[in-house]
């Protein structure tokens, strides 16, 4: 027997919202359509991340792709359960397969860069700080007008 346990921190808000959304979907929309929609969202996200070097505005497109991915991925199984058209083994297989493919699209869209060429911060005061060749894989602290004032590599404490 397959069971699903969702422990996301937003689940108490998401579950009722998704339950309400499935009641509003037209009868012509099937769970497989939503699965495809979710995958298309991940593909949009990955492509936009990958091309974001052309324009920072593509990061908004990537964010929209994540929302589309959430919509399709969250509603496909819920719609099947709501309409009582579940296919436990097939649905579980398709859901996990498309989740994996979606994660791969987003992961490769993020790319493998070891440095940030240029990081420009515009502060509320109007001050602009520009940082060049910032190493990836770290958290940095930037102080207005002073640049990087602290850093911590990922995995260190």
Which labels suit this protein?
157 residues; alpha+beta; two-stranded antiparallel sheet; two-stranded antiparallel ribbon; 18% strand
What does this structure look like?
This protein is an alpha+beta fold. It folds into two domains: 11-110, no CATH class; 115-153, no CATH class. It has helices at 11-24, 31-51, 58-83, 88-110; strands spanning 115-122, 128-135, 138-143, 147-153. The strands form two sheets. It has a two-stranded antiparallel ribbon with strand order 1-2. A two-stranded antiparallel sheet has the order 3-4. The termini are far apart.
What secondary-structure arrangement, pairings included, does this model have?
Layout: H1 11-24, H2 31-51, H3 58-83, H4 88-110, E1 115-122, E2 128-135, E3 138-143, E4 147-153
Antiparallel strand pairs: 1-2, 3-4
Helix pairs in contact: 1-3, 2-3, 2-4, 3-4
> Oligomerization state of this entry?
single chain
Spatial order of strands in the largest sheet: 1-2
The biggest sheet, with number of strands, parallel, antiparallel or mixed sense and barrel status, is:
2 strands, antiparallel
Binned, the helix content reads 40-55%
Kindly summarize this structure in a few lines.
With 157 residues, this protein is α+β, with helices and mostly antiparallel strands. The chain contains four helices and four strands.
